[in-house]
Amino acid sequence: MRLRHLEMALQRLSGFPAPRPELEQYATPAVVAARLLYHAAGEGAIRECRVLDLGCGTGVLAGGAALLGAETVAGIDCDRGALGVARKNAAALGVDLDLIRGEVGGRFPIRADTFDTVVMNPPFGAQRRHADRPFIDCALSTAPVVYGIFNAGSRRFVERYIGDRAMITAAVGGAFTIPRTFSFHRREAVEIAVEVLRIERGAGC
Questions:
Q1: How far apart are CA 95 and CA 99, in angstroms?
Q2: In this structure, are residues 35 and 3 in contact, taking their beta carbons and an 8 Å threshold?
Q3: Which InterPro entries does the record cross-reference, listed alphabetically (predicted)?
């Protein structure tokens, strides 16, 4: 599947039915999701791999990974409503996803090293400081390679946080357009610079 075709497929998916600000529930833009997945696929981290979408929301990354030929794809999210939309989006794409309700950083059914690749769009920490840390911790315990979307400029923080556990081995820039979603938003849309980081365990550590 070509990058543009993947973008078009993901653009048709439904978003959050009732987005919650404390969870920073913003739909992952199709162009950013497709770029992350295509980049990962080009490095052999999607096709015929066991992929986990951590904090999957409405299943944009999970669905895209399935379209690109992942062996199995699971998604975990704490929001029952978002998971319901993810199931409908999976059906619309014609893919199978294993969707699980669970709290990242809390108790949920994932054993260490049960996946080959983690893809994620974790909270940026705008509502709760360091909200992305449990996602990083969980991702590193779950798979040897992680592709995540972070605020531009976060690389130094992420490097300090992961310490000697792993290493950032690639970074790809992009833009994340956030439409007016919550009552405290004053503008119709805001564009935020982001970067997709590839984090690998045992990569020179």
A1: 12
A2: yes
A3: DNA_methylase_N6_adenine_CS, rRNA_MeTrfase/Polyamine_Synth, SAM-dependent_MTases_sf, Small_mtfrase_dom
